[in-house]
């Protein structure tokens, strides 16, 4: 058996054990919810998953994969049927749908890959067609399904998907050293990763958009003092999960050298102060101090502030993580300015544990840390520094390290940035005051929670909002009523956003249509432009970004007419 097949055997063995553990958890929950049929069923599935693991342990590949996929899909459907549509158990079919791209070969097992993905889709469709009565008409109480089962379903789905992302990326990295010998296997891994990351990026960002959006809404609705801490924690956790997802996706882009910068006029002093505000709480908890030193005479510069903040967040987070006493310093200085460009020196220094000299080169490798005990004691994915180096290289510079064990570390780099005028950034700031009164917006979004979040944000901004759940309904709504703008999700049932926009353009050339999607913009850019859309909003979106894009589209439409 080839090493690549052995790798797949190890994956199916690990997945079988993990899924058996999840089935045990579901059986326990079913016991407390007094659903005896589910208890017996999941104890049966536990035995099936363990049998699959045992067969895989013996080096067999085909049988355990078939057993695992059939059992997994049936287990999800049976549980969803007992819980009902308010429990969200069917979302786990997203995990089952993407899994074949990890387990089967693109070269020789394409038919198995698509067959098992199609199985998950068909079962999902059958659940909705039968109103979740596919297996049984008996259902949990709706309140229990909403308040107890739904949060567990979402957390479990996100955990499984995150496990898929990291486990698959890890397996790809450890085999990359022999890619020249195992060409066919490396091509399989690369294709599977691309398909997998594309699918999971969309599916994770959609519920994450609701989490971050709702936390913004709660924070704006004058919460009680005792609620503010919980709301801030919810918002922070959502952003941490988003950053984790971005790190994994950026690692994929980094390998194929696809990181692109979006430079905008930026006031560095304002942007960097937010970094200190975010991380200072962790410093206080650890009993260390954080110092920010930034030159006051740094001009307004053209910079991809999202990427720059990603670099600073990774470096500062590492510094705080590995410092138990002393301080962390973030220093930003202007070195020289001439001919419309300025050189900015950035340094993050700490008094932490330090890095041995023989490890100072390997820490830039993906999934690598200074020692085995580092991960055990401090945690982390080992992706932060490789991404830092990749971003700085995209900025046409390099990042360096000076470190001594027991005394601390210093990471530093210098980037050359184009300067811009104060007037330009003031123009952008002025757009925060929007005049939307009387404007009618149509939201086309099949996810009801995301639609609710967007509606609350837009209504609070003074917009009149209507909602539909698919592209065909959007076409009918635009024909029937006069809207000033349409926010169009891309992936929807019945008719997708691309087709709906093309249909609208047949009878209405003027109405602005803004795409709303969890897909990466560069991956959908051509189709967005081809169907006649006027802009793009990335999920999960920041409310200010959403309002800015709407205002820009409305203003452009006014100028053209």
TrEMBL record:
Keywords: Membrane, Phosphoprotein, Transmembrane, Transmembrane helix, Two-component regulatory system. SUPFAM superfamilies: ATPase domain of HSP90 chaperone/DNA topoisomerase II/histidine kinase, CheY-like, Homodimeric domain of signal transducing histidine kinase. Gene3D superfamilies: 1.10.287.130, 3.40.50.2300, Histidine kinase-like ATPase, C-terminal domain. It catalyses: ATP + protein L-histidine = ADP + protein N-phospho-L-histidine. The modification 4-aspartylphosphate is found at residue 489. It comes from the Bacteria. Residues 440-554 form the Response regulatory domain. Residues 199-419 form the Histidine kinase domain. Its EC number is 2.7.13.3. This is histidine kinase. It comes from Polaribacter marinivivus.
């Amino acid at each position: 058996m080839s090493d690549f097949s052995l790798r797949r055997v190890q994956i199916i063995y690990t997945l079988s054990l993990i899924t058996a553990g999840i089935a045990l958890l579901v059986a326990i929950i079913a016991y407390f919810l007094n659903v005896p049929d589910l208890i017996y069923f999941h104890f049966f599935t536990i035995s099936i998953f363990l049998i699959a693991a045992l067969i895989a342990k013996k080096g067999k590949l085909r049988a355990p994969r078939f057993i695992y996929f059939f059992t997994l899909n049936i287990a999800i459907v049976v549980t969803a049927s007992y819980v009902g549509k308010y429990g969200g158990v069917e979302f786990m079919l997203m995990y089952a749908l993407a899994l074949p791209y990890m387990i089967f070969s693109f070269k020789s097992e394409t038919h198995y890959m698509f067959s098992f993905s199609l199985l998950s889709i068909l079962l999902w469709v059958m659940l909705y067609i039968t109103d979740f009565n596919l297996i049984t008409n008996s259902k949990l109480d709706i309140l229990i399904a909403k308040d107890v089962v739904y949060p567990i379903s979402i957390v479990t789905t996100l955990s499984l998907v995150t496990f898929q992302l990291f486990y698959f990326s890890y397996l790809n990295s450890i085999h990359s050293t022999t890619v020249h010998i195992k060409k066919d296997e490396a091509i399989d891994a690369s294709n599977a990763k691309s398909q997998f990351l594309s699918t999971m990026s969309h599916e994770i960002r959609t519920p994450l958009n609701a989490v971050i959006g709702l936390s913004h809404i709660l924070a704006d609705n004058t919460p009680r003092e005792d609620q503010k801490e919980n709301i801030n924690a919810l918002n922070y956790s959502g952003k941490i999960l988003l950053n984790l997802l971005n790190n994994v996706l950026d690692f994929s882009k980094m390998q194929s050298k696809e990181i692109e910068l979006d430079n905008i006029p930026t006031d560095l002093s304002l942007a960097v102060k937010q970094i200190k505000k975010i991380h200072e709480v962790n410093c206080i908890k650890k009993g260390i101090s954080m110092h920010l030193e930034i030159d006051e005479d740094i001009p307004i510069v053209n910079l991809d502030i999202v990427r720059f903040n990603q670099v600073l967040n990774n470096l500062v987070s590492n510094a705080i993580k590995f410092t138990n006493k002393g301080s962390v310093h973030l220093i930003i200085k202007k070195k020289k300015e001439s001919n419309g460009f300025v050189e900015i020196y950035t340094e993050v220094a700490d008094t932490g544990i330090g890095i041995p000299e023989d490890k100072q080169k390997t820490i830039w490798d993906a999934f690598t840390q200074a020692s085995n005990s580092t991960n055990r004691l401090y945690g982390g994915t080992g992706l932060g520094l490789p991404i830092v180096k990749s971003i700085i290289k995209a900025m046409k510079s390099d990042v360096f390290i000076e470190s001594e064990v027991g005394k601390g570390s210093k990471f530093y780099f210098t980037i050359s940035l184009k300067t811009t005028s104060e007037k330009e950034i003031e123009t952008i700031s002025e757009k925060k005051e929007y005049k939307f009164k009387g404007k009618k917006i149509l939201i086309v979004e099949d996810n009801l929670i995301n639609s609710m979040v967007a509606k609350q944000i837009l209504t609070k901004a003074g917009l009149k909002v209507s909602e539909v759940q698919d592209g065909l309904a959007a076409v009918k709504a635009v024909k029937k009523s006069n809207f000033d703008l349409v926010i169009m999700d891309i992936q929807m049932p019945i008719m997708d956003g691309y087709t709906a926009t093309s249909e609208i353009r047949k009878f209405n050339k003027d109405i602005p249509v803004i795409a709303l999607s969890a897909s990466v913009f560069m991956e959908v850019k051509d189709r967005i432009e081809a169907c006649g859309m006027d802009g793009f909003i990335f999920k999960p979106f920041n409310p200010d970004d959403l309002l800015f894009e709407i205002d820009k589209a409305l203003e452009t439409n006014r100028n053209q007419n």
